[in-house]
TrEMBL record:
Pathway: Cofactor biosynthesis; adenosylcobalamin biosynthesis. GO terms for biological process: cobalamin biosynthetic process; methylation. Its EC number is 2.1.1.152. The lineage of its organism: Bacteria, Bacillati, Actinomycetota, Actinomycetes, Catenulisporales. This is Precorrin-6A synthase (Deacetylating).
């Protein structure tokens, strides 16, 4: 598993490039025409860094996930989707990878942060039908790229920071004793709930790509602009990946 960063081809680490140059087969999942940019970027990285090497690309269609499932049905729906992906990974490794060959998954961002590839490969390995060993090459996450682009830090002196999802933010709000919260996977812009509080937001979409959008400021002022830009971008591209940091004034509860 090779972390390839948040979108900027220059964010590939030297370790990632070295691993790519020792790979015989690259496994890609096609997410459909709307997200063709994600596949195209991976192929561009291969062409840039492996111009003098021979390799194969094996591409399969990513299974659809039931995104309407909520509440108690959410976790089972994600589990079903991950198992469907595991079936695909298992088949690709068994049928497309020679005994002495190395295969690789190019993982967006960092494989250890809100990405399913690591868990899915573990599921495949636990099935025991396809024996293999694997390594994980870390990448620049969207979280790291976000705060770098906004020229700020994740946390403040002697203070904790928490990384969570939009769904959990809506359910729990700011964790007890935490004033800096990074939110990922938020399709419903849950930051709007803090418009009446002393909370700043550092938001970014398509971070590290030519389509990058950055907005920062008090949630009360930034939220309408983010909503407008987000809707326009999603309409234009058909998809959006965004991340944001919420920063509350110390002592606000």
């Amino acid at each position: 598993m090779i972390g390839i960063g948040a979108g900027d081809p220059e964010q590939l680490t030297l370790q990632a490039v070295k691993a790519m140059r020792h790979t015989d087969v690259f496994f890609l999942l096609d997410k459909g025409e709307a997200k063709a940019d994600l596949t195209r970027l991976r192929r561009d990285m291969l062409e840039t860094h492996l111009a003098d090497r021979t390799y194969r690309v094996v591409e399969e269609r990513d299974p659809e996930r039931d995104r309407s499932a909520g509440g108690a049905a959410y976790s089972p729906a994600v589990g079903d989707w991950r198992s469907a992906r595991a079936d695909i990974y298992e088949r690709m490794i068994a049928e497309e990878l020679g005994e002495d060959e190395t295969g690789a998954f190019l993982v967006w961002g960092d494989p250890a942060l809100y990405d399913s590839t690591l868990g899915i490969l573990e599921e495949v390995r636990e099935r025991g039908t396809v024996p293999f060993a694997y390594d994980v090459v870390p990448g620049v996450s969207s979280v790291s790229a976000l705060v770098a682009r906004h020229r700020t830090g994740l946390n403040r002196v002697a203070r904790p920071v928490q990384i969570t999802t939009g769904r959990r933010l809506a359910e729990e709000g700011f964790p007890e004793g935490v004033d800096d919260v990074v939110v990922m996977l938020d399709a419903h812009q849950r930051f709007r709930a803090f418009a009446d509080e002393d909370v700043d937001i550092y938001w970014g979409a398509y971070i590290g790509t030519p389509d990058e959008i950055l907005v920062s400021g008090p949630v009360s002022e930034a939220a309408p602009r983010i909503e407008r830009l987000r809707a326009e971008a999603r309409e234009r591209k058909g998809w959006i990946m965004d991340t944001y940091l919420l920063r509350r004034a110390p002592g606000e509860r």
